[in-house]
Design a protein that fits this description.
single chain; about 210 residues; alpha/beta; Rossmann fold; binds S-adenosylmethionine; Thiopur_S-MeTfrase_Se/Te_detox; EC 2.1.1.67; transferase; Thiopurine_S-MeTrfase; thiopurine S-methyltransferase activity
């Protein structure tokens, strides 16, 4: 999936993935994922998700990475914050309140301090299978040994609909070394995504996973 695909989606306002509510899995499961820790949270491929704000309001330092400058500008504008912006290697580093967003390619993002927590909603599933292993490896390189994360995936018949979002079956997760994936909750999600039914799906499961580096 080339970067211009996503720039084009933002340019055309084809951002059906963006939600005006906090994700259910974050609200229900974040406390058990964070274990009450107040450290920094990595949010890869963050878009302009309101979940960034929710995490910040819980006292976390939040660090997103997002390709689209348009998404980043909209995030801060809608939050009514005026961010600073500086160059950081190949990325632009935006910051306001306790949310920092690095604008650029996630694979160019490097950190000096490992993250103890991460939140992935619509990041892994945004990538085709041939990119997902590289994504998981890079995410792993950013995390502390005792990190934990919340991952939200979709499962559906990939033959019935093209991604993104892609189906990431449970057995695929088992193929990624370096992480243990524990299913926390699985939900029927078709009713929440009528557009996917129109695209041909008759079954859609949304899964919340606790992810632990091993
Ligand atoms: C499906 S959207 C999900 C956004 C956000 N996680 C949410 O829940 O609303 C995927 C986002 O990843 C961004 N993206 C795609 N590839 C990327 C990459 N290589 N590096 C950084 N961001 C990327 C896209 O611009 C898009 O905003």
């Amino acid at each position: 999936m080339e970067t211009h695909f996503w720039h084009e989606r933002w340019h055309r306002r084809e951002i059906g993935f963006h939600r005006s509510e906090i994700h259910w899995a974050l609200k229900r499961h974040w406390d058990e994922i964070s274990g009450g820790r107040a450290g920094r949270v990595m949010v890869p491929l963050c878009g302009k998700s309101l979940d960034l704000r929710w995490l910040a309001e819980r006292g976390h330092g939040v660090v997103g990475v997002e390709l689209s400058g348009r998404a980043v500008e909209e995030f801060y504008r809608e939050w009514k914050k005026a961010p600073t912006c500086t160059r950081s290697g190949r990325l632009q580093h935006w910051r306001a309140g306790n949310v920092e967003i690095f604008e650029g390619d996630f694979f160019d993002y490097l950190n000096d301090e490992p993250f103890q927590m991460f939140y992935d909603r619509a990041a892994l599933v945004a990538l085709p299978q041939e990119m997902r292993g590289r994504y998981i490896d890079h995410l792993g390189s950013l995390l502390a040994d005792n990190a934990s994360g919340l991952l939200v995936t979709f499962e559906y018949d990939q033959a019935s609909m093209d991604g993104p979002p892609f189906s990431v079956p449970a057995d695929e997760l088992g193929d990624y070394p370096g992480f243990r994936f524990e299913l926390i909750e699985r939900r029927d999600a078709l009713a929440d995504h009528p557009g996917f039914a129109q695209r041909g799906l008759t079954d859609l499961q949304e899964c919340a996973w606790r992810v632990i580096p091993v």
